[in-house]
C-alpha cells in the first residue's frame, strides 16, 4: 500500500476486516460479479487497487479500471497504481517500458484505464477483470447506462469478473427484522424508488451485510444510522452537535447496551458477512442457508459505523447527522447518509396526501402574525388569466408562517390585475409590518413582469426556476427579450434550482416539533392550496419531479424559500425557536379552550385539532409525527386584518 494511504504499509485486510469477504469473493470461481457498497473513507479504492495488483501478479488476465472522469484517473488513480507497482517488488520487475499513462503492460498482460463516456476506451478490448469505481457517478453522466457497455467487456473470458463499488446516492428503502434469525436487513426496494445504481446492483446480488458482535452480550448485529445514539436524541432536550460528538454511542439492538467508539476495532476484527436467512452464533459462526444461496453475484453492504478510519468515529458521525437534521436541508441529509453511513437517502421525503397537508394547519388565522417577523415575502406565479400568490412571514432559523394565499384574477397582459398586485404589496400585517420583498416568476408575460418590477424598484424581483443549477440561486442579467431585441433597462432576474427549492418545501411537512425551521400554514388554507402543494411528486428513480396536478402554490412556496436564502435568513440563528418553543412563546390555549373563548366569525370556524400525518414505522426518514399538544389552536382566531380577494371578472 502506498505511503499516502490512511494506514501505510503492505495491504493488510486486518486493518479493515470488512474487506476480507470482498477479497474472498473475487477469488471464488462461483462469483462473476462482486458489488461492495459503503461510505467514504472505508478503503474502497485501495481494495480495488490491491485486487487488480494481486491478479496481475499471481494470475494474470487483462484488467480494466473504470473511473468517473479522465482527470480523476490522471490526477489520482493512475499515480496510486504507479505507487503500488513501485512498492511491490514482483510487480516492479514485470512493469514494461512500453506502458503509457492510460495503458500499462506488466509481464505481457495489459491493464487499461477508462472513464465514463469514453466509448472508445470502454469498448477497446475485452478484459478478464473489470473494476468499476464510483459507479453511481459513472451512470449519472446522461449518456446512457455505462454498465451495459462495461458488462460486455468480460464476454470473451469464461471466468471473467466484474467488480462494482460506490458510495450510494438516492433512494428509499426500509430495514426489517428477519424473524427467522433476529437480524435486521435492508429490504430490497422497488426499482422506481432507487436512483442509486450501486444499490440496485447490491439488491440484485447476495445482499450480504457486515455484522459485528456486541461487546456486552456477544450477539451479532448490523450497525446502521438508526442505532447511533446521542443525549436527548429526538426529544426537546436534545444535545448540541458538539455534545453529540463527545457522548455518542452505538446501541446494541439485542441487549440495549451503549457501545463506546473504542470498541470499533474489536468488533470489526470479529465481524462476519451475513446474508438474509443466515444467523450468526455468539462465536461468529454462520448457520443456516442464505435466501440468495447459489447467486453468481456477491454483494455486500458495510455501514460507515464500521469504518476502519480513526477519524470516522461514532462521535464524528453523530455530530454530522445531528447538524444536518437541525439544518433540515435535504441535500445536506443526503450527503451525510451517503458519505457518512453508506446508506441511500430519499431527498424528496414521503409526500403526504393533500388531506395530510391540510391536517398540518396550526392554531392561527389567516393574516395573523404570531411573532414579530424578520421579513415578509410575497411570491407570485404568473398565469394567463390570473396571478397566484403566497405571503409568508419569516423568522430566525428559517421558521416561517403562511399569512395569505390567493389568486388575483384578470388577463395578465392587461394592467388591471397588476394594479391589484400593487395594492397587495401595500398590505400591512400585525403592528404595521409590510411586505419586504415580492418575487415574481418570469418566463411568461415577461414584459408585464419587468414593467411591474421597474415600477416597484427595490421591492420586487424577477425569479426564474430552472430544472438544474449548480447553486441554489444566481443573478442573471437579461440582455435580450423574447423577440431578440436588446432590453434598454438592463433587466435582471434570479435563476434558482427549482427541484431543490421544492424538495425543501416538501421536507417541511414532516419537520419534527423539536427542530427549528418550522413551516406553518394557517387555519383557513383552502383544499386547493393543499392539493397544489403536493401537485408534484419527487421520483427517486430518475431524480426528477413529476407533475400530478396543479402546482402554482408549490411554485410560490418554493420561491419563498429562495427569497429567504437570498437574504441569508438561514444564518440568522439568534432567537430561533422550535415549534414547541414557539407554542410556549405565543402561549396559545388548547383547542378545548376555544369553545369558551371569543366567537370566531362564521368563516373562521376553527379546523379540527391537528392530526398527526401518517406514520411510517421503520423508516427513520419520516420524522416523528407532530404531537397534538405541541400544535395548540389559537383561541383568538380573529385576524387583525381581514383581506378577501375575489375574482374580479
Ligand atoms: Zn448487546
UniProtKB/TrEMBL annotation:
Annotated InterPro entries: GpA_ATPase, GpA_endonuclease, Helicase_ATP-bd, P-loop_NTPase
Signal peptide (from-to): none
Domain Helicase ATP-binding: 25-174
Superkingdom to which the source organism belongs: Bacteria
Positions with biased composition (Basic residues): 635-649
Residue span of region Disordered: 591-649
Basic and acidic residues: compositionally biased ranges: 616-629
Gene3D superfamilies per record: P-loop containing nucleotide triphosphate hydrolases
Record protein name field: Phage terminase, large subunit GpA
One Pfam family hit: GpA_nuclease
PROSITE patterns for this protein: HELICASE_ATP_BIND_1
Amino acid at each position: 500500500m502506498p505511503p499516502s494511504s490512511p494506514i501505510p504499509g503492505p495491504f493488510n485486510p486486518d486493518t479493515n476486516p470488512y474487506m476480507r469477504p470482498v477479497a474472498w469473493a473475487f477469488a471464488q470461481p462461483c462469483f462473476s460479479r462482486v458489488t461492495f457498497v459503503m461510505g467514504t473513507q472505508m478503503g474502497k479504492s485501495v481494495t480495488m487497487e490491491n485486487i487488480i495488483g494481486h491478479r496481475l501478479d499471481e494470475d494474470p488476465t487483462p484488467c480494466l479500471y473504470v473511473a468517473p472522469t479522465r482527470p480523476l484517473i490522471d490526477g489520482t488513480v493512475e499515480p496510486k497504481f504507479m505507487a503500488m507497482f513501485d512498492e511491490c517488488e514482483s510487480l516492479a520487475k514485470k512493469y514494461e517500458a512500453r506502458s503509457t499513462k492510460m495503458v500499462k503492460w506488466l509481464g505481457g498482460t495489459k491493464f487499461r484505464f477508462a472513464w465514463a463516456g469514453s466509448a472508445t476506451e470502454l469498448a477497446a478490448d475485452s478484459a478478464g477483470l473489470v473494476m468499476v469505481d464510483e459507479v453511481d457517478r459513472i451512470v449519472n453522466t446522461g449518456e446512457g447506462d455505462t454498465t451495459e457497455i462495461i458488462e460486455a467487456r468480460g464476454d470473451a473470458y469464461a471466468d471473467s469478473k466484474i467488480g462494482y463499488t460506490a458510495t450510494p446516492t438516492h433512494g428509499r428503502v426500509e430495514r426489517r427484522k428477519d424473524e427467522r434469525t433476529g437480524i435486521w436487513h435492508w429490504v430490497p426496494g422497488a426499482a422506481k424508488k432507487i436512483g442509486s445504481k450501486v444499490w440496485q446492483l447490491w439488491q440484485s446480488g447476495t445482499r450480504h451485510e457486515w455484522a459485528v458482535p456486541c461487546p456486552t452480550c456477544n450477539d451479532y448485529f448490523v450497525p446502521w444510522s438508526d442505532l447511533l445514539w446521542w443525549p436527548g436524541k429526538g426529544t426537546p432536550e436534545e444535545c448540541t452537535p458538539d455534545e453529540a460528538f463527545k457522548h455518542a454511542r452505538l446501541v446494541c439492538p439485542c441487549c440495549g447496551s451503549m457501545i463506546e467508539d473504542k470498541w470499533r476495532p474489536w468488533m470489526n476484527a470479529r465481524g462476519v458477512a451475513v446474508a438474509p436467512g443466515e444467523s450468526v452464533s455468539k462465536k461468529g459462526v454462520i448457520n443456516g442457508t442464505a435466501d440468495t444461496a447459489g447467486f453468481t453475484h456477491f454483494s455486500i453492504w458495510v455501514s460507515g459505523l464500521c469504518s476502519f478510519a480513526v477519524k470516522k468515529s461514532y462521535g464524528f458521525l453523530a455530530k454530522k447527522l445531528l447538524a444536518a437534521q437541525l439544518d433540515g436541508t435535504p441535500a445536506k441529509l443526503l450527503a451525510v447518509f451517503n458519505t457518512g453511513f453508506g446508506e441511500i437517502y430519499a431527498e424528496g421525503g414521503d409526500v403526504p396526501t393533500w388531506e395530510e397537508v391540510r391536517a398540518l394547519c396550526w392554531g392561527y388565522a389567516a393574516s395573523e402574525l404570531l411573532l414579530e417577523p424578520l421579513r415578509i415575502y410575497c411570491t407570485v406565479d404568473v398565469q394567463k388569466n390570473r396571478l397566484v400568490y403566497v405571503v409568508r412571514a419569516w423568522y430566525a432559523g428559517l421558521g416561517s408562517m403562511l399569512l395569505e394565499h390567493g389568486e388575483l384574477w384578470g388577463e395578465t397582459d392587461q394592467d388591471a390585475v397588476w394594479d391589484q398586485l400593487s395594492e397587495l404589496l401595500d398590505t400591512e400585517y400585525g403592528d404595521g409590518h409590510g411586505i419586504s420583498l415580492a418575487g415574481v416568476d418570469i418566463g411568461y408575460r415577461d414584459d408585464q413582469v419587468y414593467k411591474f418590477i421597474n415600477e416597484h424598484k427595490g421591492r420586487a424581483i424577477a425569479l426564474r426556476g430552472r430544472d438544474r443549477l449548480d447553486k441554489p440561486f444566481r443573478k442573471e442579467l437579461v440582455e435580450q427579450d423574447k423577440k431578440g431585441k436588446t432590453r434598454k433597462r438592463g433587466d435582471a432576474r434570479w435563476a434558482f434550482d427549482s427541484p431543490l427549492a421544492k424538495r425543501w418545501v416538501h421536507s417541511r411537512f414532516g419537520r419534527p416539533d423539536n427542530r427549528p425551521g418550522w413551516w406553518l400554514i394557517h387555519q383557513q388554507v383552502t383544499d386547493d392550496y393543499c392539493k397544489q402543494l403536493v401537485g408534484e411528486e419527487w421520483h427517486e428513480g430518475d431524480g426528477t419531479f413529476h407533475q400530478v396536478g396543479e402546482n402554482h402554490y408549490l411554485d410560490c412556496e418554493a420561491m419563498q424559500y429562495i427569497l429567504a436564502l437570498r437574504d441569508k435568513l438561514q444564518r440568522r440563528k439568534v432567537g430561533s425557536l422550535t415549534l414547541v418553543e414557539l407554542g410556549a412563546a405565543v402561549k396559545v390555549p388548547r383547542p378545548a379552550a376555544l369553545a369558551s373563548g371569543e366567537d370566531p366569525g362564521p368563516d373562521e370556524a376553527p379546523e379540527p385539532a391537528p392530526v398527526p400525518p401518517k406514520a411510517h414505522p421503520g423508516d427513520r426518514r419520516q420524522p416523528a409525527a407532530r404531537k397534538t399538544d405541541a400544535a395548540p389552536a389559537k383561541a383568538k382566531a380573529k385576524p387583525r386584518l381581514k383581506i378577501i380577494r375575489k375574482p374580479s371578472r
